[in-house]
Amino acid sequence: MQCMDLPLVLPDMLPQLWSFALRLTESEYEAEELVHRACVRALDDTPALPRDASHLDQMYSIIYSLWRRQQPAHARQRNAAKQLPQYSHQWR
Description:
Layout: H1 6-25, H2 28-44, H3 55-82
Helix pairs in contact: 1-2, 1-3, 2-3
């Protein structure tokens, strides 16, 4: 397939891409956002995509790369939430 075919085949790939993103993120909302960002990136960078890989493989790669890049930020947010002081409901 040519790079120009990506806009034509992308809608058919969305269920598989969303399923993959859901496995990574474990959140429906985050999976949807991740697939959206991956589609935007792929469509914006269509000429730069390798021609020897399938479109589905390229999209999986983009999704995984975006997910990996956002992991440090999510880890910091989770750690910050864990470090919040726990207040007792007992008043002195």
